[in-house]
Amino acid sequence: MTQEKMKKIYDIASNFQFEGNLMFAEPWGNGHINDTYLLTYEIGKMGYIRVILQKMNKKVFPRPVELMENIVNITVFLHKKIEERGGNPYRETLNVIPTKDRMPYYVDAEGEYWRSFVYITDATCYEVVEHAEDFYQSGLAFGHFQCLLADFPAEKLHETIENFHNTKVRMETFKKAVEEDLAGRACKVEKEIQFVLDREHEAGFFTDLIEKNELPIRVTHNDTKLNNIMIDNDSRQGICVIDLDTTMPGLAMYDFGDSIRFGASTGEEDEKDLNKVSCSMELFEVYTKGFIEGCEGKLTRRELELLPMGAKIMTYECGMRFLTDYLQNDVYFKTSREEHNLDRARTQFKLVYDMEQKWKQMHDIVKKYSE
Ligand code: GN1
Ligand code: MG
User: Fold this and answer.
1) Which one of 127, 188, 338, 368 is at 20 to 30 Å from 28 when CA atoms are compared?
2) Residues 11, 21: contact at Cβ < 8 Å?
3) 28, 34, 222, 223: which to mutate for ligand 1, most atoms within 8 A of CB?
4) pLDDT tens digits, residue range 312-346?
5) Is the CB of 32 under 6 A from ligand 1?
6) Domain tally for the chain?
7) What is the pLDDT of residue 154?
8) Is there a domain that residue 127 lies in?
């Protein structure tokens, strides 16, 4: 970090209810949206304490006040539930650290919004599944998260990003991006554009069912990547679900599907060598088992049947979003190389294609755990 950036972080940090002396600040994690830092404080003779400080992305989340209201409501609700069940509410949910003015966010001189969370020690976020058991644990934890929030008053939640998993609307945005071709890149990705268009008839699959009131709307996380879960280093349990920015009313299939697209892939999300990318049926199976168990019997027969569709549509949608961003000159997701978004889009399309080949197998696996 530059000296200037470091100074800025120190200034921002001084507005929060932190105690002790700030010793270090370092960039943290691999999120594509917000800027995250890990701060280490020394408190007298008690040793070191760490906290997370995060600058929220205002372009992606235009209403940060509403967003933080959601997060406070969700985390306070989870904190109580976990306590009642005899768990550790400082490890099993995020906890917001307020500012000195007792606000859940701080607005700096440039109008940027910052927030802070208790840091969860001795736990790790993984970018790829190293042990199948960890992926099972993440399924269990995301299923459990949905379950804990089953009686959360959903009407209290603001929609932080409108139409977030409305694949039909995502398709319209994609087609507009192709037409406008702002970055002049469309000619380089004709094959990928065609891949999306060939499957256009599936884009409205879930939105149509929602319109017809055929599926239960639940409070879902909506961004259930493996790296949005912390796995305890000792017990190897999925200890805490993080990145709650998109927790909103949604479908169980979204949460199942987004986990599969990221965690059941044999390659990283931005892998350039597509030969390394496929949807592992072994990983699909362990996640399915974990997620269904974590939901504690709350999923309806129809929801269970639609889990494979959730995987396919979430992967398709995400690939479409990466390609849209590539066409729009990389304005949404953080990138660190010229074709980063294109590489990401390609892995997603490879996965969609692979799922299409393994469609029957995916259904058989879901059936096996749905009895
Ligand atoms: C973003 O913030 P992060 O990195 O967990 C994105 C997700 C995408 C994901 C792709 C608010 O998640 O929707 O699926 O990147 N979050 C938002 O890796 O757009
Ligand atoms: Mg994240």
Assistant:
1) 338
2) no
3) 223
4) 999 999 999 999 999 999 999 999 999 999 999 99
5) yes
6) 2
7) 87
8) no
